[in-house]
Amino acid sequence: MIELSSLLPDRVRLCCRGVRARIASLGLMPVYPVGLSDEELHASESISIIVAVHDAPLCTKRCLNSLQAFSGKAEVIVVDDGSKLESTRIVLDEVCSRNRWKLIRNSVATGHSRASETGASASNKAIICLLNSDTVVTQRSWLGIIKAFASSDRVVVVGPSTSLTPTPQRVVRAGYCRHYWTDGQICGFAETYVNEHLNDPVIDLPYAGGFAFFIRRSTWEEFQGFDKCLPDYGNEKELCQRITQVGLRVVWTRGSYIHHLGSESYQKTIGRLAIIERSELANAYMENKQK
Q1: Longest dimension (CA), the chain
Q2: What's the N-to-C CA distance of the chain in angstroms?
Q3: SS3 per residue for 213-228
Q4: Which neighbouring-strand residues pair with 136?
Q5: How far is CA 257 from CA 70, 131, 140, 157, 170, in A?
Q6: pTM for the whole thing?
Q7: Is residue 157 assigned to a domain?
Q8: How many domains are there within the chain?
Q9: What range does the domain containing 173 cover?
Q10: How far apart are CA 291 and CA 285, in angstroms?
Q11: How far apart are CA 120 and CA 213, in angstroms?
């Protein structure tokens, strides 16, 4: 079925989206936290955050600024995967130097999967978080994740709630507003949403969205990371397939919220049609692998 919005001119469609976002934002009060709660700070201690970057300096700076505010005691490693823009390199140099984060540079782009693996190999915490550079972390990002891991030794991959992902982790209201909310509104939404759902049970999934992919280091090493035949797309899904096949669990927690803008980095470089083609090829590869 064709959606009515797809038949409208671009300007009208954008206007409709803006109106919908304003309606979905009614009653949302911005929150500007100055740091993490003691519980969130303690939870952050066991996490290594890996951010693979390929240009898109504006959204990358927004992501890194949110980490500067809310990464707490997490280890942050940024992998510059062959960025070509001088503005991107300047942003990475400034933010990483200011926060004493590790910055790794690839002279040539290797793709998101390989860049993420490079960062993971340089990390040392018990939980690895592969974080897209078009995300905004919040003051309620870590505690729910660590609680989910602590709920069972069989839980080895955890995903937070978000605004954009093909999995059930997407919160519809946040999805409508993902490009419209300020960081203060994102934090305000995260505060309300997590308070409502912090004690909800975790939900088992076939796979977790790749925008913020949390995995036990021991599991990452046991399964040897991503399939080397998948350079960009389908990698998290394929890894989760291998994990669940042996009886381990992939879960979603509503006790954590990380905002995902979507389509702001690698997709802008190679284009939407190329992304669709690569995703289809990845799905075909995974189907053949299952046979």
Answers
A1: 52
A2: 32
A3: EEEEHHHHHHCCCCCC
A4: 259
A5: 12, 13, 6, 16, 10
A6: 0.90
A7: yes
A8: 1
A9: 36-290
A10: 10
A11: 12
**Residue 5: inside a domain:** no
Residues paired with 155 in a beta bridge: 249
Distance CA 115, CA 40 (A): 27
pLDDT tens digits, one per residue of 214-242: 999 999 999 999 998 876 678 999 999 99
pLDDT digits (tens, 9 = 90+) for 4-63: 445 556 667 667 777 787 788 888 889 999 999 999 999 999 999 999 999 999 999 999
Contacts of 110 (CB under 8 A, 6+ apart): 81, 82, 118, 231
- SS3 letters for the chain? CCCHHHHCCHHHHHHHHHHHHHHHCCCCCCCCCCCCCHHHHHHHCCEEEEEEECCCHHHHHHHHHHHHHHCCCCEEEEEEECCCCHHHHHHHHHHHHHHCCEEEEECCCCCHHHHHHHHHHCCCCCEEEEEECCEECCCCCCHHHHHHHHCCCCEEEEEEEECCCCCCCECHHHHHCCCCCCHHHHHHHHHHHHHHHCCCCCEECCCCCCCEEEEEHHHHHHCCCCCCCCCCCCHHHHHHHHHHHCCCEEEEEEEEECEECCCCCHHHHHCHHHHHHHHHHHHHHHHHHHC
Residue 232: both structure tokens together: 């960009």
Q: Is residue 30 part of a domain?
A: no
* 8: in domain: no
The CATH number given to whatever domain includes residue 92 is 3.90.550.10
Structure tokens at 25: 């934002």
